[in-house]
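User: For my dataset I need records formatted as: sequence, then structure tokens, nothing else. Please produce one.
Assistant:
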Amino acid sequence: MAEKIKENNVEEPGEEKPEEVKEIEKAEEETEGKEPEDSGKEFKENKEDKERDKESSGKRKRERLSPEEREKRETERQLEEWKPKTKTGRLVMAGKIKNIDEILEKERILETEIVDTLLNLKSDLLAIGQAKGKFGGGKRRAWRQTQKKTKEGNIPTFSSMVVVGNSNGYVGIGYGRAKETLPARAKALRKAKLNIIKIKRGCGSFDCICQEKHSIPFKTEGKCGSSKIVLLPAPQGTGLVAGDEIKKILKLAGIKDIYSKSFGQTKTSFNLAKATINALKKLKKIRK
């Protein structure tokens, strides 16, 4: 640019240079032999940004937790933020009630944090739904989908059933419905914790005289709708002779060996699970 201006404006003796030419020449003299001052700073900033990106990506990879760990963290967070609203909750938070049997025998639990504080629970989803599709239809799944006809169109709702237990004599079951799957599961989990019961275990089989709490003390049966189930005590080493969904309930209840026989519409897992809980409730009535 400066050369073009020089060619156009040829200097003649006794004439001064134009102001534009002087400014360009001055700028060229200042920039010659000098490196930009901010180049080092920009390099350092870029390097720091890359390191931060690596650290953040590493944290994201670490945060990919299993559903059980996520649930555990969620319960810990809820316990930290817990402000009890009932008298029982305040006593549990103060440490005056340390055994859940004191609550189950007298009153009903109204806060899930009470159960989380006194028991170390595990949870599992029961397959009460059925997948759709021409070729893949009929496969069991955890979400049961229903639809409601309206003028605007079909409104789907999802429902799920959750079983909780500590594998040591405490078990509960809950059912939840919502417009999406995750809120339905959260509702079912909350109700399962509130419906927790204590069952009696023992060794009632005539083939076993170990007197350990690995089975049930006597025969029991439960019914819900058209589904009926009979539970029989079994000797050690038998395992859980029952359906897949019934096994989940018995395992979280702390039962290791049992025989079972079901009648009626056993494909309806919803009713069969409720019938199993009704049968386990009857174990409290000890025969003399």
